[in-house]
Amino acid sequence: MAAPQGGAIEILGCRIDAVSRDEAVSRIAALANGGGANLVVTLGVEMVMAAQRDVAFRRVVNGAALVTCDTIGLLLDSKLRRGPLRERVTGVALVDALAARSASLGDIRLYLMGGGGDTAQRAADALRRAHPGAIIVGARDGYFRPDDDAAVVAAVRASGANVLLAGLGSPKQEFWLANHLRETGCGVGIGIGGSFDIYAGNVARAPRLFQRVGLEWAYRLGKEPRRWRRQLALPRFALAALGEALTSRKEGKSR
């Protein structure tokens, strides 16, 4: 991967684009209506650590049309390096902002895919209530087998969606989009993790104070202690990223 220029940073081998939420939404809208099939990744610390072990996943991330900063750890690492990241652009925030744009401008047609049972449908209903006029052309669960891929692709294509929101969990959602997005006819596919659970009311979102300081993970861990194994990625990331950042600063001073 070429060294990032100006508007991006590379952290532990993964590219992250320095965009605000509004900039990300504008870029997604342009891609959705511009032809082609463009993957958007909302990158978090756990995903960066997974990419250390999985070269194929790292290749998918770095080949995406847009990679946003989903978690506070990546933002803090960029600040430590005096990097370009200015804010987090999370999957949850993107879903809401895209629905708002769809309602106001009508150039975004969303298809929601993911979650269990009727979670995606309830998330769609909640987004329509929050943003009357939002164009949500389909919703389905994320529990389907590889044998069902062709039928899922056909349903998305028939809906006329130009943005596919995939909440299948990472890295499954990124691999699925990389392999099938073009067949769906959507101009953009975005991996949004568990965002549908929040809009459907399955999971309570952290209070605004936790959101502002980037501690949603701590709130979620308190609510769901069984997630503690997943959180082990955080200290591993901190050590690895700190080492890389210090090395980068030393090299910069030596030059």
The proportion of strand residues reads 5-15%
Overall pLDDT level: 88
Count of folded domains? 1
Tell me the quaternary state. single chain
The shape, in one word, is globular
The termini sit apart by: 22 Å
Q: DSSP helix count? A: 13
The Cα radius of gyration reads: 18 Å
- Strand order, sheet with most strands: 4-3-8-7-5-6
**What structural category do the secondary elements indicate?**
alpha/beta
In the predicted model, the low-confidence regions spanning at least 5 consecutive residues are: 1-5
Question: What's the story with the biggest beta sheet?
Answer: 6 strands, parallel
Number of strands: 8
- The H-and-E topology, N to C, reads as EEHEHHEHHEHEHEHEHHHHH
Overview of the molecule:
By secondary structure, this protein is of the alpha/beta class. The chain has one domain (8-203, 231-248). The protein is 53% helix and 15% strand. Strands 4-3-8-7-5-6 form a 6-stranded parallel β-sheet, with helices on both faces. Strand 7 (163-167), helix 8 (172-184) and strand 8 (188-191) form a beta-alpha-beta unit. The longest helix has 22 residues, at 233-254. It starts with 7 loop residues before the first strand and ends with a helix. The model is unreliable at 1-5 (pLDDT under 50).
